[in-house]
Amino acid sequence: xxxxxxxxxxxxxxxxxxxxxxxxxxxxxxxxxxxxxxxxxxxxxxxxxxxxxxxxxxxxxxxxxxxxxxxxxxxxxxxxxxxxxxxxxxxxxxxxxxxxxxxxxxxxxxxxxxxxxxxxxxxxxxxxxxxxxxxxxxxxxxxxxxxxxxxxxxxxxxxxxxxxxxxxxxxxxxxxxxxxxxxxxxxxxxxxxxxxxxxxxxxxxxxxxxxxxxxxxxxxxxxxxxxxxxxxxxxxxxxxxxxxxxxxxxxxxxxxxxxxxxxxxxxxxxxxxxxxxxxxxxxxxxxxxxxxxxxxxxxxx
Length: 301
Ligand code: NCD
Known about the structure:
Blueprint: H1 14-29, E1 42-47, H2 53-64, E2 68-71, H3 86-94, E3 99-104, H4 109-114, E4 121-126, H5 132-145, E5 151-156, H6 163-172, E6 177-182, H7 191-199, E7 203-207, E8 219-222, H8 233-239, E9 258-260, H9 281-286, H10 288-300
Parallel strand pairs: 1-2, 1-3, 3-4, 5-6, 5-8, 6-7, 8-9
């Protein structure tokens, strides 16, 4: 992979994706056997928004490769609270570390920050923009369950603000995928993403009802309504709880449908689905470690 930074899924070619996935498969066989890869490497975690999986799986990945992490801590406890700019913050942290993982509420923040640093920077979510390392673990999981070619995927929920959706949709244009997007009208994919998908020649359909396509799907990727991004709580209330799946919903699905979710879930997937063989979201979250090991290994090399 010939990239200095990972900022959006748009920069990932099919060859890049295959390289990360194949290295991730090697790491997944025995994650504890690779501490000789990057001894002493220090990864800086700069999270300006909450995170459990992304942050902890990057930390695990760095340690599994023989490195360690330094953590900016919460915004409340950092100099950001004193009014420091993002550019200054990353310029300082670059001097302490070999790589930076950045999550920030502003779309475009990672792109901007990357212009100030020479160490590799990974966008771990920029507002409603992109989340490309999540996409790599999503692709790894899809590949395990359905394969990446001749794929029919349904992506449901908050397609407007869901950054994992934007990144996944872009990345899937590298493969022979039929993408069905299911959401209320108000949470459709942003125009810019639809435009890019069209330009890439993607096979895309939009629906308001899951029933219209459920029986065709290999994968159903469910997302959380991104409450924190709604400018007004009333708008959130209008759409909250509209796209929920439970065991009864899946009665019309193929037996081997893989149900995915980047997590955290709120109420989009009834916990009764967890017991079904279709539930892959916890495996998906666990895949974050080998996939982020592979990504760091390539970026740090
Ligand atoms: C996602 C995110 O932060 O965009 N979480 C994650 O990284 N797994 C999805 C979400 O918050 O809904």
